[in-house]
């Protein structure tokens, strides 16, 4: 049975997750991942890969790095923490509320754009037909 690789270079995980090594170093600077050092090289573990995946998913969902760090800290304190799950539920509920407000704003703006577009088309038709009448 083949063992899965437990050590990865920054280039390997950058390619796997389609991010730049600079982004990975930034997450390290923020304390979100913690590779070991071998000389000048960073060596990443499976845990680092999982955390990077969670960071990228969290960002895609609109969570801040501070919110992601808070979840990691809760997990590091107690991996089976109900507190972590409660915090995640609160964050997702808050994010959902913010997105719903943004969606409402977008829908309102779309309606306003529809109205402006309809008025412009009407005025263009009137202008075009009145110009035809004066050209005769």
Characterize the largest beta sheet: strand count, sense, and whether it forms a barrel: 2 strands, antiparallel
Order of helices and strands: HHEEHHH
Strand order of the largest sheet: 1-2
The general outline is elongated
Contiguous helical run count: 5
What is the terminal separation in angstroms?
89 Å
What is the percentage of strand-forming residues? under 5%
Into which percent range does the helicity of residues fall?
over 70%
Can you give the mean pLDDT? 89
Oligomer description: single chain
Work out the radius of gyration: 26 Å
The CATH architecture of the domain at 1-61 can be named as Orthogonal Bundle
Record the SSE blueprint.
Layout: H1 10-17, H2 21-29, E1 36-38, E2 41-43, H3 46-60, H4 65-77, H5 82-135
Antiparallel strand pairs: 1-2
């Amino acid at each position: 049975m083949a063992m899965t690789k437990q050590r990865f270079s920054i280039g390997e995980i950058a390619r796997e997750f389609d991010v730049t090594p600079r982004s990975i170093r930034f997450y390290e600077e923020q304390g979100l991942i913690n590779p070991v050092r071998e000389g000048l090289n960073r060596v990443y573990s499976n845990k680092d890969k999982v955390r990077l995946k969670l960071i990228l998913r969290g960002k895609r969902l609109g969570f801040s790095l501070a919110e992601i760090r808070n979840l990691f800290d809760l997990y590091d304190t107690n991996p089976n923490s109900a507190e972590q799950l409660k915090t995640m539920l609160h964050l997702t509920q808050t994010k959902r509320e913010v997105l719903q407000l943004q969606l409402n704003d977008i829908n309102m703006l779309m309606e306003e754009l529809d109205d402006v577009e309809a008025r412009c088309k009407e005025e263009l038709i009137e202008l075009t037909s009145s110009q035809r009448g004066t050209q005769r």
